[in-house]
Amino acid sequence: MWYSKKTVTINVAHHIRGVKDIEKVLHGHTWRVSVFCMNDVPNIKGNLVNDEEIEQVIFTYNNIVLNELPEFSDEVDESLNPTPENLAYIIAKQIPLAWRVVISDITGDEWCYEQ
Is 43 helix (H, G, I), strand (E, B) or coil? Predict the structure, then answer.
């Protein structure tokens, strides 16, 4: 089995719904997003994945207010709360070989989604 890890730093802003005292308080974060991939064989170039494709997915979420995205919209009752756990889930679903996505902050806290 072949494994790879790609880490990218992004800046996001969000507010969390349903949490007393901080609901609707817009605040920002700098998060490191690490995508772990695995496969039985590398691609024709000898790589497991194309790093540029992973970066493109992750940078979709750079320098934005997460609540303004459809998947996190305040206007949709079924939308996800824009937490790092949910962002990890959304990123993992966009990268076919990803089996784990970890989002961490400067304090060392980590949030993870594994498929």
Answer: coil
Q: 97 near 41, Cβ under 8 Å? A: no
Contact criterion met (CB below 8 Å) for 67 and 14: yes
Side-chain half-sphere CA neighbours of 70 within 13 A: 0
The residues spanned by each domain of the chain are 2-114
Beta strands (DSSP E) in 15-87 are 27-39, 64-65
User: Two tokens at 114?
Assistant: 């594994």
pLDDT tens sequence across 53-97? 999 999 999 999 999 999 898 776 667 899 999 999 999 999 999
Superfamily of domain 2-114: 6-pyruvoyl tetrahydropterin synthase/QueD (3.30.479.10)
Provide the 10 A C-beta neighbour count for residue 19: 12
Q: Is the dihedral of CA 18, 64, 92, 109 positive or negative?
A: negative
